[in-house]
Amino acid sequence: MAQEQRLICPSEALPESGKGFRFTVARFDAEVPAFVVRYRGKVYGYLNQCGHVPAQLDWQPGEFFDDSKLYLICSIHGALYAPDSGRCLGGRCQGVGLKALNICEIDDKIFLNL
Predict the structure, then answer these.
(1) Cα(31)–Cα(46) distance, rounded to whole angstroms?
(2) Distance between CA 19 and CA 23 in Å, rounded?
(3) Which residues on adjacent β-strands are paired with residue 80?
(4) What is the CATH number of the domain that holds 97?
(5) Which of 46, 81, 96, 113 is 20–30 Å from 72 (CA)?
(6) How does residue 114 score in pLDDT terms, banded at 50, 70 and 90?
(7) What is the domain extent for residue 48?
(8) pLDDT in tens, 39-82
């Protein structure tokens, strides 16, 4: 049986280490914010929630990377996360990482695997 997928955005909407694409996912009978970014040629997706405080990461809509373009950064308290794993690298996240989503890129489109 084929895995069900939901189209998120075209591949061209995700520049390398640039602006992310925001969307929502169903979780526990509610729609919650999520995002995808491109880092080192691959696409990664996470729930848009800091591992430390229940706040969205982006400091402006779709702006998830810090100035160096190497890390995802929390807009509230500056916790840093690895874009390719969601692992907490520093800040007050106390080792709690981002919640990853199952994302794939096929034929120049980004999909969420359900």
Answers:
(1) 14
(2) 13
(3) 73, 90
(4) 2.102.10.10
(5) 113
(6) confident
(7) 5-113
(8) 999 999 999 998 887 789 998 999 999 999 999 999 988 899 99
